[in-house]
Amino acid sequence: MKNSIQYITPIVQQALTQLYELQVSEQGIQYTRKEFQGDVTLVIFPLAKRLKKPLEQIGQEIGNYVQENTQIVASFHLVKGFLNFKWKDEYYIRLFENMAQSGDFSFKKTTHRPVVMIEYASPNTNKPLHLGHVRNSLLGCAVAMLFKAIGRKVIKIQVINDRGIHICKSMVAWEKFGQGQFQKSTRIKGDHLVGKYYVIFDKHWREEVNELCAQGYERKQAEQEAPIMKAAQEMLRQWEDGHKPTITLWKKMNQWVYDGFAETYRRLGVNFDIVQYESQTYLLGKDLVAEGLQKGIFYQKEDHSVWVDLSDEGLDEKLLLRADGTSVYITQDLGTAVERFKKYPIDTLIYTVGKEQDYHFQVLFLILKRLGYHWAEKLYHLSYGMVDLPSGKMKSREGTVVDADELMEQMHCTAREITQELGKLQDYSEAEKEELFEMIGLGALKYHLLKVDPKKRILFDPLVSIDFKGHTGPYIQYTYARIRSLERKAPQSRSNHFYNTSLNVYERAIIKTLEQYPFAVQNAAESFNPALVVNYVYELAKTFNDFYQNISVLNAEDTHQSNFRMSLSFFTGRILKVGMELLGIPMPERM
């Protein structure tokens, strides 16, 4: 069965053709906003400009035509330039009956299933994952799930930045100050141990810089000449030369980090289909630079460095190869993109990377386009705002970050404290309690980070994020648990055929909201914005709780009415569960 917008769109187009001889590609049809009466709204402002007629006349003419040519319009009314249609109860009863029987959410069907590759996480190996990585990973995973929900094939990928000066800093600090400390002997999670030495490196580097400045060095010169920085640079050179002891230490410390990352991802519910490593991809792209140089797309300076001039695009010059022939980040990204499209049948490639890299990806996509790759139009930067703390921006080398592992544990413990205060755990085993605390705590974290539009920055205050009332994950989870409790109390035999001839305002509101689920998911996927699904499930939960608190479900006026309301409740629970699972949030059967 078609949804409301699908149903009315061809009738509106027919009205425009018959009444005004107009063919309009976009009719301006949307669901009516909650504060207005009606179910579907036609925006007629643009028509008034084209037809040069009063809004009232256009609204009356179109309204009459649609009502006369369909069986579902109960009434219509005009509010300024918005023509609102109200459906008959019979339409919503048939619509819900169809949903309950088939579960058909009317996603767009295509014979070709486009392949979406989405890159996310992609951390450095010199530190554990922090809150910024959590937002990145949850956003990438949620967008991947949304595309799967609308029928796309999805490849989830990350590139681990496992080489470079950052890991060498941790390696130097471990050699100088580790005193033979190994991950197993310390019982410290591997990524935390490596991150500890990164912070130690920074501390000693700053001390050495201050000492050199006191001896008369300029600060920039002191930062380069500090002995510990020289040692890190020498270690990077040894790594690039394949020095065996350096490679052995590098592999050992990186493995500590990989094991730590895997543990964090597992608890967070994040996974990947493919993992790439920068140590295996950093040479990619050099051939592309040579090709672009030969074609005159790039140019070489006297020092033999290679550049691209993007000034005609309102940008500037961009370095592609250093004078010594070594590549920069964008060189690697060029090669990685080409390799991915050669290896996989990708229709869209999405990079989930913070807003600070907007310029980088603008340049990357433009260079690929100039090199003649038609699929450059299929690249998308899923840019998201950074996560700030009340004290300011997070800084890994200074240790001023919200650690992902500590944060998840804090959320778990807070969920334990609040749930125990409610005193509803008498018949839970200890294992069941801990499982519930994990669901609630991590559900609250994920919901809080995903409910904000990706483009916006988040000011993260851990105490505020653990508010279990209102627009929160636990509120949705509790609503679902309430519905599951209803199901356990309900009679086992029920029908999905309903005989109601009228709906009250609460029943109608639930069906109207349920109908909009596929619309919310489709829009969220196409706009790369999971917040649209978060806001949808919140509205559905609020609508159900209004319904539950104002009318009786199990003890309705008659059996048919009770059966109808139970079916409404159970289907609402199903949509809440499916919607939250798209966000990576599990739903407890009881709370």
Question: Mind explaining what this structure looks like?
Answer:
The protein has 591 residues and is an alpha/beta fold. It is 55% helix and 12% strand. The chain has 23 helices and 15 strands. A five-stranded parallel β-sheet has the order 7-6-5-11-12, with helices on both faces. It has a four-stranded antiparallel β-sheet with strand order 1-2-4-3. A three-stranded antiparallel β-sheet has the order 8-9-10. The longest helix has 25 residues. It starts with a helix and ends in a 9-residue tail after the last helix. 38% of the residues are buried.
Structural class: alpha/beta
Query: Which stretches are low in confidence, meaning pLDDT under 50 for 5 or more residues running?
Result: 394-399
What would you report as the Rg, rounded to the nearest angstrom? 29 Å
The number of E-state strands comes to: 15
Average of pLDDT: 90
**Number of separate helices:** 23
Strands side by side in the biggest sheet: 7-6-5-11-12
Which range does the strand content fall in?
A: 5-15%
- How far is the N terminus from the C terminus? 35 Å
Largest sheet: 5 strands, parallel
| Residues in helix, % | 55-70%
**What does the overall shape look like?**
globular
Short note summarizing the structure:
Helix content is 55%, strand content 12%.
What are the defining features of this structure?
single chain; 591 residues; alpha/beta; 5-stranded parallel sheet; 23 helices; 15 strands
Element layout with pairings:
Layout: H1 4-20, E1 29-31, E2 40-43, H2 45-51, H3 55-68, E3 73-79, E4 82-87, H4 89-102, E5 115-119, H5 131-149, E6 153-160, H6 165-177, H7 183-186, H8 190-214, H9 219-225, H10 227-240, H11 244-268, E7 274-277, H12 278-281, H13 286-294, E8 299-300, E9 306-309, E10 317-321, H14 329-343, E11 348-354, H15 358-370, E12 379-384, E13 387-389, E14 392-393, H16 404-422, H17 430-450, E15 458-459, H18 462-465, H19 473-489, H20 505-515, H21 517-526, H22 531-550, H23 559-582
Parallel strand pairs: 5-6, 5-11, 6-7, 11-12, 13-15
Antiparallel strand pairs: 1-2, 2-4, 3-4, 8-9, 9-10, 13-14
